Protein: Glycosyltransferase family 2 protein
Organism: Kaistella pullorum
Amino acid sequence: MKKISIVIPAHNEEGNIVLIYDAVARVFASLNYTFEIIFVNDGSTDDTQNVLEKLSKLHPEIKTIEFSRNFGHQPAVKAGLDLADGDAVISMDADLQHPAELIPTLIAKWEEGYDVVYTIRKYPKQISMFKRKSSSLYYRFLTAISDVDMSEGGGSDFRLMDAAVVRVMRNMNESDIFLRGLTHWMGFRQTGLRFTAGQRVSGQSSYNLKKMMRFAFTGITAFSVKPLYLAAYLGFIFSAFAAVGYGIYVINSFVDGTEISGWASLIMTVVFFGGVQLIMLGIIGIYLGKIFKQVKDRPNYIIRSKNF
């Protein structure tokens, strides 16, 4: 029988571990496939590791990876992909927002010949309108400024990848991993499935506004250099405006014999252009920072222990 690997990153998910295992096990009880579940403990500070160790002793199909510290969601998924040996690998979150009931459909699409089956998240009604719209606008913006079409399917790490795709993914050694973009960038034969995200059963999401903003910048800078071109274009545009404005001032001074006063507007202009310059320097700094981290070639994660 073919083997399916399930990769589940977990950060402070002690209350969800048993629930997500039970949900996945119930699904595979009716499928003609063997399976393994690779839990990646991403530096949890609660009892997640103890729960995983106890559960793995009861169920041999459970494999555990423990990080030396919290490295983040994307490196945790990457670690699971690096060590999975199934004919296909499914990545999903431990908070039960990714429904295990969709796994048979993912596998069916894979058996039809698709190498990657990604999912397109639909938020439930209780999720705020701001969250829905901002997520949609972000991936449209990312598609517009990069060479990767992520207008659909970009907002979820719930996907199935064929073993051939996973082997390619293992060779990706980027310092700032953005798996959602890499999956689309690699190509292969892909299709998408829509699903409605479930409710988190236990614990709280570790994705605060700061982490989401950082994740957004990672996605933008990982697949596009257009922000750098934007900085150059804005420089030319503002220089042209300045030249035209100064020309108007000189002509007015000669024709009317008066000078244009406006100390406040001058200060505002200086502050505005100073802010624009800082923004452009910030964009350049982000790219330089990514180069700095990449050339050091440090690993994306460090494994403290594993049971296989």
